[in-house]
Write a structure and sequence with these properties.
Helices cover 39% and strands 26% of the residues. By secondary structure, the protein is α+β, with helices and mostly antiparallel strands. The protein has one domain: Alpha-Beta Plaits. A hairpin with a 5-residue loop joins strand 6 and strand 7. Helix 2 runs antiparallel to helix 4. About 2% of the residues have low confidence.
Length: 244
């Protein structure tokens, strides 16, 4: 398990953000409304008061049945993440507005399950870059590695190998890049990019694959393709009240 205290000390020195990524699995529209109402009316206003700006809430672009809900909450420090629940418990306005979600009956819960991950921003992009608000979709990508050493090497490829810089030069709008400290399918890294259209998405990824700097980087012996054992790509769209 990661050394949380050590991560907190290093993050304070580097200014790197932490993110909580939640994925809500839902059974029906009633649960979706409960979760969405909770974030729009209770969680986002309360988190903003605590200094957590730019909270994102997303649904799947083309869900296979009932959509999942993805939420992304940034924290300026690990201490903020560790104390947020106790602070919310003391917020009477939040407790009142969150009651339908927090106190949903056992035979009608607000969701089926929550998958939650704690992420730490990469040194190469220590803070989230929120895109302008307009019609767009986001691609959330997770790269799993076969070993922890391989995972660290892939992260080095983004930072020391300037993979992030290649994305930016080509015109990807990167929202964040992060390492999963706690969560499922570790070791892995997670990042988010956004596009106006699917045609733009396809064009940018084709351009990236053929970019000379990328071709050179991926051909280096220290960065073999085997550093990544599995890639998960999910297309998501922001809700009307999402701050990302």
């Amino acid at each position: 398990m990661p050394n949380i205290s050590m991560a907190s000390t290093k993050a304070k020195k580097s200014g790197r953000e932490f993110y909580e990524l939640r994925i809500y699995t839902l059974k029906n529209d009633t649960q979706q409304k409960l979760v969405e109402d909770y974030f729009e009316n209770a969680a986002i206003p309360a988190l903003n008061k605590l200094g957590c700006k730019s909270v994102g809430v997303f649904t799947e672009l083309k869900p296979d049945g009932q959509t999942r809900i993805f939420t992304l909450t940034p924290y300026s420090s690990l201490d903020d993440f560790l104390t947020v629940q106790s602070k919310l418990a003391e917020d009477s306005d939040y407790q009142t507005k969150a009651a339908p979600y927090l106190s949903a009956p056992l035979d009608a819960p607000a969701y089926d399950r929550i998958e939650s991950s704690l992420l730490q921003a990469f040194p190469g992009m220590p803070k989230m870059e929120v895109p302008e608000k307009k019609e767009r979709f986001f691609e959330l990508r997770r790269y799993e590695s076969p070993t922890e050493a391989a995972g660290k090497k892939k992260i080095s490829m983004f930072n020391d190998g300037d993979e992030i810089a290649i994305f930016k030069r080509i015109g990807f709008h990167s929202v964040f890049y992060s390492e999963t400290l706690i969560g499922s399918m570790r070791p892995n890294l997670v990042y988010m990019v956004t596009f106006d259209t699917m045609a733009s998405h396809d064009e940018k990824w084709k351009e990236f694959g053929a970019d000379p700097a990328w071709v050179k980087l991926r051909s280096m012996p220290e960065y073999p393709d085997a550093l990544v054992s599995h890639i998960t790509s999910t297309f998501i769209v922001p809700t009307s009240y999402s701050q990302i």
